[in-house]
Amino acid sequence: MTSADCYAILGSSKANVLVGVAGLLLLAIAAGLSFIGTWPTGEAFTRYTVRLALAWYFVALFAMLAANQNQRIDAATAFWVARWAWTWGLIVFLAHVAMAFHYYHGWSHQRAFDHTRQASGTGEGIYVSYFFTLLWGIDVVWWWLAPIQYALRNDWIDRLLHAFMIFIVFNGAVVFASGPIRWISLACFVALPIQFFRFRLGHRKPTVF
Question: How many CB atoms lie within 10 A of CB 173?
Fold first, then answer.
């Protein structure tokens, strides 16, 4: 990928600002209504924010893979979608974490530790969740502050990052989940390697893997 290609994928700065402001406004309104008890309930907000974060997560991964098209305009669009999906996935996931600590753990690390121990058998798993959130946050900030360096970074960084995140998401969305969300997530996880190898067989290098 050349520097020109990298700049081509950044998208319109005005469009980025509009999407960001509109999204933050909607999130702020929803959070405000949740805290004053109007809509949605704390339980619903906690549950649906993690589901929305999961949806954004998969959109971002598929867009990252799709960004390897030969047509530059297609790649530019895919990168623009990928970066915003990756960003909103993190923002909504942080909202989920905040709602969980507010409504279920009383902003207590010890209560979150105990809950993790009851759910998974080991309370230390909470630190893995913290690390997951930290890595996602660092990656998003890196992509926005230094997009050219981000696009040109070594492949092993992406492989390690996404291998770890996929492992955590798979456990949370499939192994420990139930109902339709488990099967939808499983279908997405099955589709990911299919998409990956489609690019491999087509002699294209996937962006994030």
Answer: 21
Question: What's the number of CA atoms in the CB half-sphere (13 Å) around residue 36?
Answer: 6
pTM to 2 decimals?
0.76
Cβ burial 186-203 (10 Å sphere, 16+ → b, else e): eebbeebeebeeebeeee
Q: Could you tell me what percentage of the chain is helix, strand and coil, using 3-state DSSP and rounding each to the nearest 5?
A: 80, 0, 20
CB 59 within 8 A of CB 81: yes
Residue 46 has pLDDT above 70, yes or no: yes
| d(C-alpha 142, C-alpha 119), whole Å | 33
69-92 confidence digits (pLDDT tens)? 554 546 677 788 889 899 999 999
Is 32 exposed, middle or buried (CB count within 10 Å of its CB: 0-12, 13-18, 19+)?
exposed
Cα 184 to Cα 50: distance, rounded to the nearest angstrom:
14
Among 62, 20, 103, 41, residue whose Cα is nearest residue 206? 62
Phi/psi for 193 (5° steps) reads -65, -30
Contact of 200 with 206, CB cutoff 8 Å: yes
pLDDT at 32 over 50: yes
